[in-house]
Amino acid sequence: MDKxxxxxxxxxxxxxxxxxxxxxxxxxxxxxxxxxxxxxLATIDGHGIRVEELEQLLAxxxxxxxxxxxxxWLTWLNExxxxxxxxxxxxxxxxxxxxxxRVEQLRPAELTFLVTLLKVIPGTELRHYWPRVAIxxxxxxxxxxxxxxxxxxxxFMELDLESDVDxxxxxxxxxxxxLQPQFEGRWLQSQAEEVxxxxxxxxxxxxxxxxxxxxxxxxxxxRLMGFILANLQYxxxxxxxxxxxxxxxxxxVHVQGDDEPGSxxxxxxxxxxxxxxxxxxxxxxxxxxxxxQVDNQVETALTSPRDRLLLQGNLDYxxxxxxxxxxxxxxxxxxxxxxRQIHHLQAKVRVAALQLLSxxxxxxxxxxxxxxxxxxxxxxxxxxxxLLAMGQLDGNPRCRAMAxxxxxxxxxxxxxxxxQASAKGPSNYTPFAVSLASAVMCAYRNLSTILQRxxxxxxxxxxxxxxxxxxxxxxxxxxxxxxxxxxxxYVKKLAKHNDTPVAVSALLVMEMLVATPKLTQxxxxxxxxxxxRPLPTExxxxxxxxxxxxxxxxxxxxxxxxxxxxxxxxTLEQPVPVPPIPRNSWLLRQVLRYLETSSTTPPLRLECLxxxxxxxxxxxxxxxxxxxxxxxxxxxLQDPSQDVRLYAARCLDTLGYxxxxxxxxxxxxxxEQHLAFWLRLLPFIYAAYMxxxxxxLKCSLCDALANMGSNSFDRLPRPQRNGLLAFLSGCSSDxxxxxxxxxxxxxxxxxxxxxxxLRSDLVFIENAAESTLRLTDNTQLAVRIKAxxxxxxxSDALLVASVQTERISDDLxxxxxxxxxxxxSDHDKVRANAVRSLGNLLQLLPPQAEREGALIxxxxxxxxxxxxxxxWNACYALGNLVKNRALFTTPSSCxxxxxxxxxxxxxxxxxxxxxxxxxxxxxxxxxxxxxSDFGSHYTEVWRSLLAATERSNALxxxxxxxxxxxxxxxxxxxxxxxxxxxxxxxxPACRSALVDHLxxxxxxxxxxxxxxxxxxxxxxxxxxSLLTKRMHSNPLTSLSGEQRSALDYISDAxxxxx
Length: 1058
Known about the structure:
Blueprint: H1 2-18, H2 30-45, E1 49-50, H3 51-62, H4 67-82, E2 88-89, H5 92-101, H6 108-120, H7 130-134, H8 142-156, H9 168-184, H10 195-212, H11 214-219, H12 221-230, H13 296-299, H14 305-311, H15 316-319, H16 331-335, H17 337-363, H18 366-369, H19 373-376, H20 387-393, H21 397-411, H22 415-418, H23 432-453, H24 457-473, H25 484-494, H26 500-514, H27 521-527, H28 542-547, H29 552-570, H30 586-596, H31 602-615, H32 619-622, H33 626-637, H34 642-663, H35 668-690, H36 695-706, H37 710-715, H38 718-733, H39 739-752, H40 762-773, H41 781-804, H42 810-823, H43 828-844, H44 852-864, H45 868-882, H46 891-911, H47 915-925, H48 938-951, H49 961-980, H50 987-995, H51 998-1011, H52 1014-1032, H53 1041-1054
Parallel strand pairs: 1-2
Helix pairs in contact: 1-4, 3-5, 4-6, 5-6, 6-8, 8-10, 9-10, 10-17, 12-17, 17-21, 20-21, 20-23, 21-24, 23-24, 23-25, 24-26, 25-26, 26-31, 30-31, 31-34, 33-34, 33-35, 34-35, 34-36, 36-39, 38-39, 39-41, 40-41, 40-42, 41-43, 42-43, 43-44, 43-45, 44-45, 44-46, 45-47, 46-47, 46-48, 47-49, 48-49, ...
């Protein structure tokens, strides 16, 4: 209201000044006064004004050479349109066309009015202006350039670049027009107040362009990177002219997409349900509130919501600038508000540059992005045009937080790249690996300096998160010792910070450090863990090591808390002595202290549980503190927060798994401690399950029980064991329970069937099988996967039970085979276990039973399955099946088996691209015991082995190189196995096939025989002599000349000198 009134009064004043010297009633400005009054009435009555009148007004005013009059009119009309007091009647496009015809001569007031008009027009009607506006070059005036970019931005946001292909080159041309004046230095020395505003708008428009045009970002990455780096210090010193940043050629590295490294291992242990230790990825600690304001440009820089929450937990500190609560302005800014405004605008430029860097990092492929690593993360700590220097030295806390946030985004997923770093190299030149190691060390020094000097909690939080990402990606064993000692003391202090996000982020750093697969000596000393290598007698960092030990005051606090907890536990249970925690194990002490304090916030509790999960991989550290661990887990299972209860169950799951692994080779006293741990927690597990409505928590509790381990389970008192089995059986059979929970309970039962105390209990196995059959046809894939895995374990147990006790009923066995056969047509993750169970179940059938349909289904999985794991398991099942002599007892069954099996295996051995599949297929042949089992397919199998040997040297994929030697060894052993069963009439065909592959087979045969250990190589060394001896020692047959020639040829080709 005030702006509109002031603009109107200014317009009247200008008209009065211009009308001097004219008659009051007939002057040329009397028309404008009348139009002004008409517009005022239109704003009051709401009738509006016609566009033609405004067009005539602007044309008449422009010819009077009274620039101030035109500016006054446009200013007032603009305020009326912005406040929505004035409605334009007629075709607004006429007014826009009038302004666009002379857009290159337009003054700032006219461009401001054009921007307002464009915002009034519906978005779908703006697109036809795009070709005319996009090609406009930037004017010389800073203010005019800024207003022109506003016009281009309004129209660009309404475009549909994916459907309108013609607009794509125009977007690229617009980006070029934005960058060109900056690289020319057109406004480099300008002191205009609009310069930071114009720069901010340039960055924001470029962000929008490259977000929709990744090809442009890839092509012009060097210019964009130079433009960004030149403005990271905007306002702090003299402006820099943008430059092209040349990518480093040495940074080309094989990067498997943008995924976090740590490929999954397909070789899983059946008795643990496929459980394996995995490197934990970065994950969120708290849920983001729906009302949280998130900056759109930075938010799109990460794809995973969990990663985005972790790396951008405080986006409010980066997407908006200026001072706010928690950020106290300096005395100079309080005394000079205009100086504060200047700093505010300068900070907006730096934030916009960071947003462009974030968007650019999202669009660039990893391989190309790593080419600019030397500019983003230099190895020189004196350089200031980089992210970490900005996070350390920038005067605006929001800019510092934003810089560290973007640095964390760039570091995320860089483990494959940083694995090239190495501190060791030749002295006559600096290789790329050493330069990369220097950059990593420089990053750690910068982050350590920030942790030492920073006091603003949001910046500390972002710095710690950035450090956590860097720790996860660092190859510690390839770098020099000492830098861990630099940042861990600061992290230790911040882990006790009063601000919860800071303390959580500090513990996150330690979690990532402890979870590192290969702990170095300094890493172990920093957290009080046991090292795999003996520590030297002289420590080079004694002063630093003292900082990792708790002080005397902390020891006294720990002792008082132990006394308090001991008094509380006396009333609850029989007192048990609790061993003290070593002084250097400050991390475990701090985590348990947080969990044992009732005032600890839920986010902090969650992270403490995550730290314990990471420390569980070093279970020897936790072994002596199982009593306290059981207390804190029991307490967390009763926590009011659902998230805390869920993470407590997951923590128990991880502890149980590591405890079972650790317990296998330990003394009975330690096994008794593990048993006491579970006996103490079982009532709390039952209570948490009964009181919980969340399916995820119930599943985690069942998974935790599944990881109890055979030692602890078999030592359970009979009442507790029967109660546990009854609890899980009830959970798996409860029709009112969610199917995911039932499948989790079934998985636990399937783990138990292989425990020594239950594997011969046929009644329990049959009950578990019945529960499995109820879930094999479930509509949820996750349920069917667990049911198929359970079926595989049950089939393993049935094989053991069939030897020791009576067989299961034929009806149940038939239903299990039907379920396994049907599962072989399901998803690959279901088939992988279905084929395993089907191979086991077919062995249990009596010799006269019909098994052709199931066998055909098993072979179909070998031939047609898409997943290599399905074929591995199918070949493994066939190998077990071939051991059953009942399949070859009658001539008809032998012919049936050989006609189905061997053609499929012969094709698989030669043609499949996965070497591990070919190894498992070849292993099936080694299980065939008699020559008659091959039937008429003996020669076909021999030819396939020779062809596969020659093809083994042709690597279709570099990833198969590691399996080539194992494949060649298996092929040679299979050839020796077939020759040991050969008849005299087989020799001519074997020779004929060997002639075509003689050189490759003989060289491979010799290389394998002299490479493998003597016990395995024995069949290769004795094959030739045994074949000759067997053929000549048979009195019933005499060799023909062709057969004798073939025998000599084969023996000479495969003869080895011992």
